[in-house]
Amino acid sequence: MKPFTGTPTDYSLKEHWLAMPDHPDKPVDLVFLYPSSCHDSRAGVICPVDNRSMVKGARRNFAQQATAFGPVANVFAPFWRQVNSMKLAEMSFEEVDQAEWAEPRTDVYAALDYYFENLNHGRPYFLAGHSQGSRLSYMVLSEYMKEHPDYYVNMIAAYCLGDSLTRDYLKENPHVKASQREDDLGVVVSWNTEGPANKGHSSLVVSPGAISINPLNWKTDDTPASAEKNLGSYKPYLLIPRLKKLPVKADAVIDTERGTVVVTEPRLEKCAITKIPGLKKMEPVFGPASYHGCDYSFFYLNIRKNARIRAKAWLRKHKTVMS
């Protein structure tokens, strides 16, 4: 395992947990790694674990994403140092990658050590993240879990949304498997959501050789799924920890060449990240029609249903009952 950067955050302190149930009452857990939540122009490249901007953003993202799993799993979420989103536009992909392998990796691994040693008690679990949280999840899967196969064997699935699962990554990490259907276990569930106009544009989160699974029909080919399969689409509020139900639902079709999930419903174009006031400057980072902020919310209830299907499949396989 690569050496660590800096001193890890002390995860025996409850204030370093965004979510830590006092009395877990479900048979499965979920560990959530929030996306880029630090938006502090005065902070450096790496946000401290108690940065006010990051703590506020992490709570908002938790409410808009991790709550999809709330009825299914006991949700645990550490606060962890991360790359400041205000610096992304001026950083290359390589610089972002190097920064994430530094203090963010140190904290996430330390949080997992504490979770497995003190909080998990042998329960099967999901791993879930978004964007930068998914990038750290891929590090966990490739390195941490290789070192801890006794933990890895109990993973139901990893939802790594908003960052690319690539063919090269899978070749380099043959112990990691991509999901192929709605109920396979021990796999990675991944997609990046875009509009048709993003075709041909670069995006920080869409890598060459990316692959996705369709969150509405759970296929990996280009079979389109109509909005009728969507149980409800939402849009995150920018500044408060709530979701707004949309009057129309997202459809989904995989662009197998680009490896993304494409939403063709034109009435959802207003949800593109570049349509959010003040974020037009992010177009060179994500492209003109990225639904990066809606990877969870467009398919929120379908994600919840799928997590329940996978949890039941795991417990059925291991002869455990889930209510």
Task: Sum this structure up briefly.
With 323 residues, this protein is α/β, with parallel strands linked by helices.
Summarize the structure in words:
- It is a single chain.
- It is built from 8 helices and 16 strands.
- The termini are far apart.
- The strands form 5 sheets. A 7-stranded mixed sheet has the order 1-4-2-6-7-10-9, with helices on both faces. A 3-stranded mixed sheet has the order 11-16-15, with no helix packed on it. The protein has a two-stranded antiparallel sheet with strand order 3-5.
- The protein has one domain.
- Strand 13 and strand 14 form a beta hairpin.
- It has 323 residues and is α/β, with parallel strands linked by helices.
- Helix 3 packs across helix 4.
Which keywords apply here?
323 residues; alpha/beta; seven-stranded mixed β-sheet; 8 helices; 16% strand
SS element count, helices: 8
Strand content: 15-25%
Report the oligomer.
Answer: single chain
The CA-CA distance between the termini, in Å, is: 39 Å
Low-confidence stretches: none
Biggest sheet, in brief?
Answer: 7 strands, mixed
The general outline is globular
- Largest beta sheet: what is the strand line-up? 1-4-2-6-7-10-9
Average residue-wise pLDDT: 94
Per-chain topology:
Elements: E1 17-19, E2 29-33, E3 46-47, H1 52-64, E4 74-78, E5 82-83, H2 93-100, H3 103-119, E6 125-130, H4 132-147, H5 149-152, E7 155-161, E8 165-166, H6 167-172, E9 177-178, E10 187-189, E11 193-194, E12 210-211, E13 234-236, E14 243-245, E15 253-255, E16 260-262, H7 283-286, H8 300-317
Helix pairs in contact: 3-4
